[in-house]
Design a protein that fits this description.
The protein is mainly alpha-helical. It folds into two domains: about 80 residues, Orthogonal Bundle (Rna Polymerase Sigma Factor, Chain: A), CATH 1.10.1740; about 80 residues, Arc Repressor Mutant, subunit A (Orthogonal Bundle). Helix 2 packs antiparallel against helix 7.
């Protein structure tokens, strides 16, 4: 099977991971598209016999990290107590289509530091091995294990409302 054909098999996994990572359907789909575009443009760099999924997640991770750096450099920061901005401008409409548990889990995942969230999602959601995650994120296996451990512990605390300032908000 050609590498290009194999890429299509991984699109659902890439999409699921991107949507959990970014929490914005349109931006996540853009990230998947950018990942596939980069992979198709660099198929010659893929080494046959290695894990294509890990290679794709490495590309996605690098694209996401680059986008996050660029976004934070040009982001407009607004003070919480800035009275010149109406509170209604900061409000985000609630979408009541998911179950409450999924909403709480999603909220808790977004509260994790990006480094922990990436590892938790790749191991828990994508069922990647520690070695594959280490390869995809270009970090040592020990770092994968420690980030996973800290991420899971923080996720448990967030879901239980046990960390200071970590109580989940009630959306009405």
């Amino acid at each position: 099977m050609d590498v290009r054909d194999e890429l299509m098999e991984h699109v659902p996994r890439l999409r699921r991971y991107a949507r959990a990572l970014i929490n914005n359907r349109e931006l996540a789909d853009d990230l998947v598209q950018d990942t596939l575009e980069r992979a198709l443009g660099h198929t010659g760099l893929f080494q046959p016999g290695t894990d294509l999924r890990a290679w794709l997640f490495t590309i996605m991770h690098n694209l996401f990290a680059n986008q996050a750096r660029k976004a934070s450099a040009r982001a407009v920061h607004v003070a919480v107590d800035d009275d010149s901005i109406a509170e209604s401008e900061l409000a985000v409409p609630s979408v009541q289509t998911r179950s409450l548990e999924m909403r709480d889990l999603d909220y808790a995942l977004q509260r994790l530091p990006v480094e922990q969230r990436e590892v938790v999602l790749l191991v828990g959601l994508e069922e990647m091995s520690y070695a594959d995650v280490a390869l995809a994120l270009n970090i040592p296996i020990g770092t994968v294990m420690s980030r996973l451990s800290r991420g899971r512990e923080r996720l448990r605390a967030l879901m239980a409302g046990g960390q200071p300032g970590a109580k989940l908000q009630v959306v009405r």
